[in-house]
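LOG
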Amino acid sequence: MAATEQQHERALEIFLDERPELRIELDHLNPLLAQAKGETAAQYRAERLHEAFEAEAERLGLFAWELTLQLTAASPQDYQAQRLEVHKEVAEMAGMTWADYCQLHDL
């Protein structure tokens, strides 16, 4: 079961709550930059938040969906179970054996 949109939104809230400096930065973005991109200030802010989230996931060596699960799971065991479930779904969609997929992704 891949992370739901609701889980991802909750993960973004947690991520932002843990980084007050990022919240301040996002709250003070130049509205002209949003206008130049043809976006509303809210859209531009959301895009910057997603970029920061994805950069943090990459820094941790995770996919963004893994960081979402990590931040929203009830326990480390729950995170690991959900993570493996998603990886199994991806392996199946890719038509790979579980063993080959695990080897490819160091699982």
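LOG (cont.) second protein
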Amino acid sequence: MALVWLMLLSLTVSAQGEAFAPVRNAIRGGSSRELAQYFGSTVELSFDGDKQSYSATQAEFVMKDFFAKQAPASFDFVHYGGSNEGTPYAVGKYVSKSGAYRMFVKMKSAKGALVVDTIDFTKE
């Protein structure tokens, strides 16, 4: 029984990782245009606690500005999870030439697809 549970849990985590793969690739490439393809109609962006809600178009420009100032040297998700309601999230480490950030990305379901709802950067 425990083995079945473990296998189901690993499949869930693997599926969550797959959902985040295109988001990870866009962040690694510093591509706000590519990343914006996965935004919901509104996106909450937070930089060191300064939190704001943006339309998908505005969020793309905010991320473009961030990537221009903090170009990614490396990025990877280090943890995937889900809330009790089933909302998937991932925690990652974003490294630029001028510093490292802990990054939190939360998705939500919209029109039958998972879209990015929240991106939170916290300088380490």
